[in-house]
Fold these 4 entries.
Entry 1:
Amino acid sequence: THLDSPVHFAQGRRSVDQIPVSELIGPAVVVDISDASRRDRDYQLTVEDLERWEARHGRIPRGAVVLVRTGWGNYWPDKRTYLGTDKPGDTANLHFPGISEAAAGWLVRERAPRGVGIDTASIDHGPSKLFRAHQVFCAADVYALENVANLDQLPPTGATLIALPMKIAGGTGAPARLIALLPEGGVPK
C-alpha cells in the first residue's frame, strides 16, 4: 500500500510530510464496485455508483476517506491478473479498474473527502494515459491510497481509517500502513 500526496500530480500542493496527521485519520466509507469490475476489467467508478451507494448507506460525510473496493485485492500477488500483464515495463497492457474523472470531480465538489483509496495499483484505471482522477484529486489537495488490502473486511460505513505513510520530506508518495478501527471497537485481521 502506498500514499500519493497531492504534489504527485499538482505542482504547489502538499507533499507527504505536509499532510497533517489529523487528515490521515478519518471516517472510512467503502464503495463496492466489485460486481461491475468482474464484468469489465477496466471499469471506472461512476457518479451513479456513488449515488446508489448513498441511497443505501446515507450521504458520504465531508472529510471522509472514500475507499473503492473493486475486488482486485483478491488477485495480489498474481501480477498478470492484478495488473493485466506480468512483463516488466509493459504499461501498454495494464488492465484494472479505477475511478472515473467524473466521479472524482463529483466527490471533490460535492463531498470534499480528505483522501481516497482503492485496491488496485492506481486510482486511475489501467489503460489510463492522462491520469484524470489523479489530476482532479491532487489539484483539490486530496491524497490517494493505492494497493489497499483487505477492503472486504470493512463495512460500508462506521470504520475509522488511520493511514501511516513514511514521512518523506518533499515526497510525492510513500509506502503506507493502513489501520482500520471497526465500529464494534475491533480491528480487521
Note: The longest helix spans residues 47-57.
Entry 2:
Amino acid sequence: MVDGSPKLSDGRYVGLLVHLDGQVVGGVGILWQDLPPNMNTTKSIRGYLLNMYVDPVHRSQGIARILPAAALDACRTKGVDVVTLHASDAGRAIYAAAGFTSTSEMRLQLD
C-alpha cells in the first residue's frame, strides 16, 4: 500500500501484476469510476484501464495480451459493462486485438 493514495486504500484503484520467477514483469491498473448511466450503459460503475507496462526484457512473450484480458475479467466480475482507456501509439494494436474500438474525445487543459 502506498501512503497518501486513498484510491488504493479504498479499492477504487486495483493493480494486476504478472510475476515470473519471483519478479514482477508487468502490470495494469483499473480505476473504478462512479459515473451516471448514459446511452452506452445503465450501470453507474465503469472501468478505466491505465498504467499498463511490461518490462522490456519480457516483451514479445504475450504478457501485453494477458494483462488486458485479466483486467477485462476483473471488470466482468465487478459487473462493469463499459471499459475505457487511452492508448499510446505503441499499445493501440494490443487493445484493438482485445476488442477495444477508438472513440472521439475532446480535451481542454486548464491552467
Note: Helices lie at 6-9, 63-78, 92-97.
Entry 3:
Amino acid sequence: MLKQISIFAENKKGMLQSVTGILARENINIMGSVTNDSAEYGIIRMVVSDPQRALEALSKEGFICRDTDVLGVELDDNPGALDRLLVSLWTAISMWTIYTFPSTAVRECLSRSSMWTASMR
C-alpha cells in the first residue's frame, strides 16, 4: 500500500520550503503534493520515496505529521480514463485527494510499496 504523509504547518512565508528542505537533506524524493490552507494553518500532503524516514525527519524538526494508506492506480493517458476509474470506484471508496504523477513516478512509488494495490487499464 502506498503511504501519504500529512504535515500540519503554520501558514507563513517559508514554511513549505522548510519542509522541502528537510526532505532534500534526507535525500527523500517528493513524488506528488497537495497543499490545503486556511488563514493560519495548512496541511501539506505528499507521496514521497521514503515515508517512514520523512515522518521521522519532519517530526524531529517539530512538525506534526502522520501517514495514511492511499490507493495507487496507473491509468492510460487518454480522455476519459480518470472518469472511468471514478465511476467504477464511487460506491466503494471515498476520495478526498487525487495526485497526478508522470507514469515513471507512479511505477517507482508502486515498486517501493509493500504490495501492489490496483491497476486499471
Note: The chain has four helices and four strands.
Entry 4:
Amino acid sequence: MKAKIFENRIVLVTGGSSGIGNEIARQYATCGAKVFLADIQPAKKDFPFEFIYTDVSSVESVSNLFKEIRKRVDHLDILINNAGISEFHPLEEMTVEYWDKIINTNLRSVFLCSQAAISLMKHQEACSIVNIASTRAFMSESDTEAYSASKGGIIALTHALAVTLSKYNIQVNSISPGWIVTGNFDALRTEDHKQHPSNRAGKPSDIAQACLYLTTPGNNFINGSNLTIDGGMTIKMFYEE
C-alpha cells in the first residue's frame, strides 16, 4: 500500500486510545490521514492524533463529539466504530443495568456515531464506515449473552446501513476479529498459536490493515459485508480426542 494513500483524508476512530483502536489510528496517521480519536482517555502513543473526550454510550457525549469535529473540519471521510467493552457476567445474575451498559456501549454507539456522521459525509464523493464486531457474533462461550448480542447486532446494523447510505455513496462494512492479542504477544504459549489454522494468534495490526483495505479509495465494491479475521478459528471443527 502506498505510504500516503490516505493523505488529506479525515478519519475518526472511536475507542482509539488503546488496543486495536490505537493501532488502527496509528496506521491511518502513518498513511497520511488526519485522525480524530474519540475515547474516555487520551492516547499514550506519540502520534499527531486529535483527541476528543467521548463516552460513546452517552447520546449527549456523542453529540458533543460531532459538534467539536465540525468546529475543526468541514467533512469526514472515514469512521471506524471500534469502541466497546468486553465483559461477561453469569446469565442468572445479569441485571438490566449491566445488559444496557454493554448494548449501549457496543451497539447503540455504532448507531449514534454513524447517524451523526452522515451530515459530514454525504456531500463527499465517497466515504466509508467500518464497524468492529467480533467472531462472538457467530460462536459463544457461557455467560456472554450481552456481548454476543451486541456484536451480532453490529453485523445486522452494518448491512442495513450499507443499503440506506448507498444513496450518499457511503460504504459500510464490518470486521469480526477473533483472538487479537493487545498485551504481550511473546508471552503466549506454542499451543495458543498452534490452535489457529494460521499457526498464530492475531495482532492489532491485522485488524488495522483490514480497515485500510476496506477504506482504500476506489475499493468500494465491498459493501455491506462482514470480514472475519481470526486465523481460521471459526471454520475449524472441535472434537474431544
Note: Residues 96-121 form the longest helix (26 residues).
